Amino acid sequence: MGLFGRKNTTESAATAVATLPVDPALAALTGDYAIDPAHSSIGFTVRHAMVTNVRGSFTEHEGTLKLNGSDPAGSSAAIDVRIASIDTGIGDRDNHLRSGDFFDADAFPLMTFRSTEAAHLGGDKYRVKGDLTIKDVTKPLAIDLEFNGSATDVYGNERVGFEGSAEILRSDWGLTWNAALETGGVMVSDKVKLNFDISAVKNAA
Predict the structure, then answer these.
(1) Which residues pair with 9 in a beta bridge?
(2) What does pTM read for this prediction?
(3) CB-side exposure of 115: number of CA atoms within 13 Å?
(4) Which of 42, 59, 61, 181 lies at 20 to 30 Å from 194 by C-alpha?
(5) Alpha helices, DSSP H, located in the chain
(6) CA–CA distance, 159 with 153 (Å, rounded to integer)
(7) How many C-beta neighbours within 10 Å does residue 24 have?
(8) Read out DSSP for 42-75?
């Protein structure tokens, strides 16, 4: 399927670019969508003390998708995440993550992503590139996504679903706090895996 991007092939400099035909089912998905936070999750996984993983999520987020099924390259995504909503299941740890040692949620309340381009990797797999901003630092981010399909729910809402992930170095965004371990290594890994499970509802015409 070519929801976010479509493949072009060029046989030679003298050969015109061939474009894959548009799937009518995908063309019908064209429109503006709102991410449904009640059925979506934005989370992360990070290595702790070199031996285990800590998992968490941001429980407050909102975003939009603009899908163009007839010309998928024209699709885009925007997501805003409220840092103070971070939840790892342990209150003291969450408060530390909100503090100036990490996100400084009072001074920088939002983490944002704005897409800049997308590519079809084959089948239902895509790569969306864009700008991730944390603590007023903006860096490029590539997210690998899988299109899970579309459906009409029991309330008559047209939905689309995606899931995906990306890896970042938190130090690139100024998240540098750490503590050395007596046995060597550090308390918190620099590498963080971001996880996305998105359900979005098409806006009424």
Answers:
(1) 18
(2) 0.86
(3) 23
(4) 181
(5) 24-27, 91-98
(6) 7
(7) 9
(8) EEEEEEETTTEEEEEEES-EEEEEEE-SSSGGG-
